[in-house]
Specification:
Chain lengths: 235, 199
């Protein structure tokens, strides 16, 4: 926490803290820009797990990416479709869409962004996603959430040449399946770094640097403890 | 602005109390934590009802709208009404029956479909988009499958191709990244930087 605050304080005037660019986020930006230009929709899927689930932080990370992405889509003719599998997510997403609509568009224009619940269990959620993914006016599918084995059922969508499909999950099984079938996958912590890499929030960037520092410390601790074990300490 | 600060304070204080209460379960703060969690569970139940009502609304809209997918929506709404009414009449017995006789077999069949789908996906990796990382991934999958079956008792291969060590190393690396991401996201919510509950 302290690292995040300290880095965010020094971030503005420092060139030391530059973030590494990831190709997948560059492609995501391009895909969103293309969908806006073509007058098509972005479909954002947040998964079937809810906020109270022990993997709820993945949903917050997904919501941060959504918040950044939705700002880019309001310039287009068609607002995004968001699907989730939980009432809490639904309310928060509706709130976020309304806030973004008020901030980006004249309040007299009607907010036509769709926020839907596709299904409340993992498999029913994926079944509900089929019809949304296959809508004619959807050109970008973005799956960010806690997906497990069930994401494999959308394999044909990930292979489709007509749409840009991006996927990320905190589950190892979900990541392995996404990696094998999707062209654009968020691996590991990329899912949590998405808001920093897509947007320009200095706290998000600072927390990304704090994560990197803690990661290096953990690596050093693992190597150090292994060396100590080799020399017989700690046995 | 005031509403936003008020929400952030409630979220932050509740979060910190739940964390502290977790470490001191028998203290006064532990009791407060239990109360906060009880309220959260109650709210989750209400949110589930809101979720179900949204699902129904979406499918009713799809039935009314023009398109070729309305048949599925009719099936969903009809099954919902049937399950709700019969569960109410039979005092949950019918609900268990639906779960055991319809939902579990369907989901098990879908798991089987996934395994076939993944085999197709692996074969497609070779046809297109074969990058170095995907090649390594595919090689490890094949070696792991072979080591689990026909080559299990070959001593030389067992030593050379002990994929478990490599796979577990990669798995731990990814999990450390996911863990750090989860913690930093949680911290941002606690200190009010990320406010998913609105601004």
């Amino acid at each position: 926490m302290f690292l995040t605050i300290i880095i965010s304080f020094f971030y503005r005037n420092s060139r030391v803290f530059h973030i590494r660019k990831r190709e997948v986020f560059r492609r995501l930006r391009s895909a969103i820009a293309l969908s806006v230009e073509n007058g098509t929709r972005l479909h954002f899927s947040l998964g079937s797990k809810g906020l109270i689930h022990h993997r709820g932080m993945t949903f917050i990370a997904g919501l941060n990416i959504f918040n950044t992405a939705i700002g880019l889509t309001f310039a287009g003719d068609k607002p995004p479709i968001t699907t989730s599998g939980d009432g809490s997510i639904n309310i928060l997403v509706e709130d976020m869409v309304r806030n973004n609509h008020q901030a980006n568009i004249n309040s007299e224009v009607e907010n036509t962004a769709k926020v839907e619940i596709a299904g409340v269990t993992p498999f029913s959620f994926i079944a509900g996603e089929y019809s949304t993914c296959n809508k004619e006016d959807v050109s970008v599918n973005l799956f960010v959430g806690s997906f497990d084995t069930e994401i494999g059922l959308l394999e044909s969508e990930f292979q489709s040449q007509d749409t840009y499909t991006f996927g990320g999950s905190d589950s190892l099984t979900g990541q392995a399946i996404l990696f094998s079938c999707a062209r654009n996958t968020f691996i590991g912590e990329e899912l949590f770094a998405g808001s920093a890499l897509l947007g320009n929030n200095r706290f998000h960037i600072a927390s990304l640097h704090a994560q990197d520092i803690v990661r290096v410390l953990i690596i050093l601790m693992i190597i150090g403890s292994s060396i100590l074990n080799i020399f017989g300490f700690g046995q | 602005m005031t509403k936003s600060v008020f929400s952030a304070i409630i979220a932050g204080v509740s979060g910190f109390l739940v964390i502290i209460g977790y470490y001191f379960p028998n203290s006064f703060i532990g009791e407060i934590r239990n109360q906060i969690l009880s309220v959260a569970v109650f709210l989750v139940a209400i949110l589930f009802l809101i979720g179900i009502s949204n699902l129904l609304k979406v499918h009713l809209q799809k039935i009314n709208a023009e398109g070729d997918q309305y048949f599925y929506s009719i099936a969903v709404v009809a099954m919902f009404i049937m399950t709700f009414v019969l569960t109410l009449i039979s005092k949950s017995e019918f609900g268990y029956f639906i779960f055991n006789a319809i939902q579990i077999p369907i989901e098990t069949s879908l798991m089987a479909v996934i395994s076939f789908g993944l085999v197709v996906v692996l074969s497609r990796i070779l046809q297109n988009n074969l990058s170095i990382t995907k090649f390594v991934f595919l090689a490890f999958v094949i070696v792991t499958i072979l080591m689990a079956g026909p080559l299990r008792n070959t001593p030389l291969l067992k030593g050379l191709l002990n994929t478990n060590i490599w796979a577990e190393g990669g798995m731990r690396g990814i999990l450390i990244g996911v863990g750090l991401g989860t913690v930093s996201t949680g911290i941002r919510v606690l200190i009010g930087v990320d406010r998913p509950y609105g601004k």
